[in-house]
Amino acid sequence: MQTGDDVAGYGEVLAANVRAYRARADVTQQQLAGRMRQLGERWHYQTVGAVERGVRPLAAQEIPALAMALGCGIEELMLPAPNVEQVMFGDQVIPASRLSAVDGSVAWDADGTISVVTGPTGRYTPEQLGAIAQALADLESRTGAGRRPRKTGR
Q1: Against a cut of 0.90, is the pTM above it?
Q2: Could you list the mean pLDDT of each consecutive 10-residue stretch along the chain, which spans 154 residues?
């Protein structure tokens, strides 16, 4: 990415994700364009190339179709890679974690001016979240935490 590994323009994020997921799916630009046409989009291999170079933005209706055609989820397609800590929108640098959770890192002042709070991002992968959920479930089963008291007949 042109702006460095820890900061990227959002268009660069999408372009990199399309390139990466197309490579994982082991399909050519022509094949991906064909899949998109089957899903109702007027794509050609040149369209894929332009998206992968970041010179053609994606329309909202293309995003779910593209995720299906690439065999990934919409969130995977839209979110930055873990090594990207900040994303640029115009001249504003936003914590990448803000794209997957509303966390107070971005706010708007009364006059409509953006206010960005920087600091640790605290991003977790789906695997990490699954491990945390499993650990909490294990803890609850051992301690009885989270159980509702049983009602008595009184």
Answers
A1: no
A2: 66 94 96 96 97 95 95 92 87 84 70 65 62 80 64 58
15 and 42 share a domain?
A: yes
Residue 1, in any domain of the structure: no
**So what's the pLDDT on residue 153?**
60
Residue 24: domain span: 7-78
Q: What is the CATH number for 41? A: 1.10.260.40
28 and 67 together in one domain: yes
How many Å apart are CA 88 and CA 69, to the nearest integer?
A: 27
Same-domain pairing of 74 and 101: no
Asked if residue 61 belongs to a domain, the reply is yes
The radius of gyration computed from the CA coordinates of the chain, to the nearest angstrom, equals 21
DSSP one-letter string for 45-112: HHHHHHHHHT-SPPPTTHHHHHHHHHTS-HHHHHSPPTT--EEEETTEEEEGGGGTS--SSEEE-TTS
pLDDT of 23:
96
Which residues, in sequence order, are bridge partners of residue 8? 87
Q: Cβ distance 53 to 15 under 8 Å?
A: yes
